[in-house]
Amino acid sequence: LTNPQRPPVVYLHFAECTGCTEAVLRTTYPWIDELLLETISVDYHETIMAAAGHSVEEVLHETVKKYEGKFICVVEGAIPTAENGIYGMIAGKTMLDIAKEVCPKALATICIGTCSSFGGVQAAAPNPTGAKGVADALGDLLKTPVVNVPGCPPNPINFVGTIVNYLLFGKLPELDDKKRPLFAYGKTVHDMCPRRSHFENGEFVEEWGSEEAKLGYCLYNLGCKGPETYNNCPKVKFNEGTSWPVQAGHPCIGCSEPDFWDSMSPFYEA
Ligand code: SF4
Ligand code: SF4
Ligand code: F3S
After folding, report:
1. What dihedral angle (degrees, nearest 10) is formed by the CA atoms of 166, 170, 171, 173?
2. Is 153 in the pocket of ligand 1 (CB under 6 A)?
3. Is residue 30 helix, strand or coil?
4. 107 CB near ligand 1 (under 6 Å)
5. Angle CA(33)–CA(238)–CA(203) in degrees, nearest 5?
6. Which residues are recorded as binding [4Fe-4S] cluster 2 (predicted)?
7. Residue 193 Cα, ligand 2 centroid: separation in angstroms?
8. Is the dihedral of CA 136, 138, 143, 146 positive or negative?
9. Is the CB of 149 inside a 6 Å radius of any atom of ligand 1?
10. Does 218 count as an annotated binding residue?
11. Tens-place pLDDT, residues 213-243
12. Please, which pLDDT band fits residue 1 given cuts at 50, 70 and 90?
């Protein structure tokens, strides 16, 4: 089953909820077994590793040393930076120091989820821990490429697509000005929404559970942030293409945009 060309991956967990890992474990294109056994070689991942403690710490350091400049670093979670990062510690080290040690040695860092991309909920006001996304937290220390794959959680297809782009073409995908792959974040949710014709016709849901809601009218007046949110949810959907928030009758809350907890709230306007 194994392909010797599989690139080594070091997957770091910082200040997060593990929702992004849960999303990746439910990837369907390919399924998780194919992703782990045939596509990439995940050498370090705290959630799915059977071992714990000093032995896995050694695995992390050995992998980084052995594959310096050749491994992909995936980061889930924001990095607390206040007071030299003491609000986030793993094995006696701050998350900030771990990121400073590991990310610059990777060939590239892929930030999975809005937390590692832009700070996420940890960075919401008043942000007492000084939480930041990876690129922001490391600044000039990180000279290797960073790709942000935001969403809370992101669609696993956008994460897998970024890796597959590298495997097929030997380079990372084209990015927008927020370091997001254009293949996934090049258009707004509103651009691709199947309720768009209702928006154009002025047909809006004004009340939850109303007749207009049953008819699938536009959710803008309930607070939908689809017009300001770049993501491909209407096109790829979640759970093997089953559904996505607006299809399920819930407004988009802008989960792939920087600072959405502050800038997109209130999420509901009815
Ligand atoms: Fe959890 Fe959302 Fe952060 Fe992912 S981006 S770790 S789902 S809070
Ligand atoms: Fe746009 Fe949201 Fe209305 Fe869809 S439901 S058309 S994304 S405002
Ligand atoms: Fe997030 Fe909006 Fe898609 S809330 S999952 S970007 S529809």
Report:
1. -40
2. yes
3. coil
4. no
5. 175
6. 190, 193, 218, 224
7. 6
8. negative
9. no
10. yes
11. 999 999 999 999 999 999 999 999 999 899 9
12. very low
User: CA 47, CA 1: separation in Å to the nearest integer?
Assistant: 23
For residue 34, the model assigns a pLDDT of 87
* pLDDT(159) > 50: yes
156 lines ligand 1 (CB under 6 A): no
Looking at this protein, which amino acid is placed at residue 52?
Answer: A
pLDDT, residue 40, reads: 87
Beta strand spans in the chain (E):
8-13, 41-45, 72-76, 79-80, 89-90, 93-94, 108-112, 131-132, 146-149
| 111 labelled ligand-binding | no
pLDDT at 2 over 80: no
Pair of tokens at residue 157: 């297809």
CA of 218 from ligand 2 middle (Å) equals: 5
Helix (H, G, I), strand (E, B) or coil at 111: strand
Which residue has its alpha carbon closest to ligand 2 atom 3? 218
Extract the tokens encoding 75.
């980061």
Does the pLDDT at position 75 exceed 60?
yes
The answer to whether the beta carbons of residues 75 and 110 sit under 8 Å apart is yes
